[in-house]
Task: inverse folding
């Protein structure tokens, strides 16, 4: 059972990271190269993608906690300490920003409010990407260390 959870944890974490990376890079690209219709399309794509992203983040967090309950120190402890920041940032900054930006873009309101919220969303997205990258990096370190000990 732990092996299955490990695979689910890894897959969900990597998929969530890649989805957020695609949201971030699509936003930057369309803001630099796109027209208002393309910006609105990307914002709609991001909101639609939340239906995949949110379950992946929940699965990664839940399986991580189930595999190592009670562990508070070391590399695992560091990973666990990052997760609340990722969740709070996603739930209270990224999700509302994505919904509001989608609304503004669909209405053609690409004004100061839009770009202020866009800046906040990009900063929050960068923070989440960075924290998730650290968790993925630490996860790979744990797997490598475990495989060396088993050899």
Result:
């Amino acid at each position: 059972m732990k092996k299955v959870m490990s695979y689910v944890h890894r897959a969900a974490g990597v998929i969530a990271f890649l989805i957020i990376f695609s949201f971030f890079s699509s936003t930057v690209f369309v803001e630099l190269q796109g027209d208002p219709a393309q910006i609105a399309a990307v914002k709609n794509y991001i909101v639609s993608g939340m239906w995949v992203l949110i379950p992946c983040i929940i699965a990664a967090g839940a399986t991580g906690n189930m595999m190592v309950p009670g562990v508070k120190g070391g590399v695992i402890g560091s990973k666990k300490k990052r997760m609340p920041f990722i969740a709070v940032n996603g739930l209270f900054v990224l999700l509302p920003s994505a919904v509001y930006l989608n609304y503004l873009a669909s209405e053609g309101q690409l004004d100061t409010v839009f770009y202020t919220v866009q800046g906040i969303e990009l900063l929050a997205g960068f923070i989440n990407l960075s924290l998730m990258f650290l968790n993925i990096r630490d996860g790979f370190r744990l797997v490598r260390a475990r495989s060396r000990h088993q050899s």
In short: Residues 112-150 form the longest helix (39 residues). Residues 50 and 119 are 19 Å apart (CA to CA). The mean pLDDT is 93.
